[in-house]
Amino acid sequence: MGLQFPDGFLWGGAVAANQLEGAYNEDGKGWSTQDVSPNGIKGPITETPTEDNMKLVGIDFYHRYKEDIKLFAEMGFKVFRTSIAWSRIFPKGDELEPNEQGLQFYDDLFDECHKYGIEPLVTISHYETPLHLSKHYNGWVNRKLVEFYERYARVVFSRYKNKVKYWLTFNEINSILEEPFMSGGIYTPKKELSKQDLYQAVHHEFVASAMAVKIGHELAPGAQIGCMVLSMPTYPLTPNPDDVIAAMEFEHKNYFFADVHVRGYYPGYMKRYFRENNISIHMEPGDEEILKHTVDFISFSYYVSTCQTADPVKLEARGGNLIGGVANPYLQASEWGWQIDPQGLRYVMNMFYDRYQKPLFIVENGLGAVDQLITNGHGEKTVEDDYRIKYLNDHLVQVAEAIADGVEVMGYTSWGCIDLVSASTAELKKRYGFIYVDRHDDGSGTLERYRKKSFHWYKEVIATNGQSLQR
């Protein structure tokens, strides 16, 4: 029997507003944390936006989205994951009234998607807290952000309730543990941030996320609202029980975020961690009730797996998607040191589904690589990205294996379906897309779009509902 994907499987691609829109100061938009992060997570941040920040222009999606949505439709996308830039809607974040021009842009964008039968999948907060909320309130450390986020969520659910069926509350919410500024808008430098303040900020995000689920279900009863976590399956480096426990404890830090979103309460293992680290979460009256507004599905990113060990000598950090670990001796790595493990995707899907019995949505997966634009034998400019095709093929085969295991999967959106600026490095040379964008790290380029070889490959995958994939 061939690979089986369910009827109605949502094939598509994923992006984030701050990595492709550009137009950072147009139509009333305020500054976000991304506008002062010209080097990605490597830092340092700047006081104001600077010309060397590639995200200020991105790929000019703000002005070219019609051209890009048409290309996505040509591939056959059923769904397009993007985010709303919070600072387009509330430029400072703490205003009482939203910016109408910002709201209108997303009306137009979602209308363009529907023109081609593409469903938007919208992340409410994707790594771009309004800079004012970061500087003046210290981001999510401050309880006031719950109020500001609630107001923002209420506005976008009210405005787009007839245009958006699928919503995510926060992108890779667990990444706040490693990148508190990018993920949580926390202005306190990471090395000075206490665990108490960090986990209090996490609590505030949990409350805001649950509140958004409650508001979304009230204002848009047909909508499905999910959480979004960075998944990183973790293997013990050896069968030594100490390594097994080290891997379990590492995974707990990630499962914690899905556990609260799906189960609606704090798990025992985290209460132990809080006790042992003198962390006391301050809860306002009603917080425990709010947390019971749980998500409809679990979405996640998957790029790498990692290993853990209790042996301090072997605990050398290994590059991964924000969260490090120990190199797996059985795996190869990408140009950026991210180890490639297609079977890890099947494994983590089974782990999530066994744990929660909730539908899953793979909303990020892809290969960042240096692509070379060439002219082929037909005189067309393209990229011969067989390495990307192999990566995606092998991961999608494992998605099919997980489906055969009985895992319920809503869809798959490949990360960076069109080239965009990297979140982690703020580079354009680290490309993920099916569509090549002629823009480079020195700011040069025409911004013209070109179909890569993988464009035609993915079009065939979607057209055959996965039957064209190669085991």
UniProtKB/TrEMBL annotation:
Gene3D superfamilies: Glycosidases. Belongs to the glycosyl hydrolase 1 family. The active site is at E364. GO terms for biological process: carbohydrate catabolic process. This is Amygdalase. GO terms for molecular function: beta-glucosidase activity. Keywords: Glycosidase, Hydrolase. One of its GO terms (cellular component) is cytosol. It holds the Pfam family Glyco_hydro_1. InterPro entries: GH (IPR017853), GH_1_N_CS (IPR033132), Glyco_hydro_1 (IPR001360), Glyco_hydro_1_AS (IPR018120).
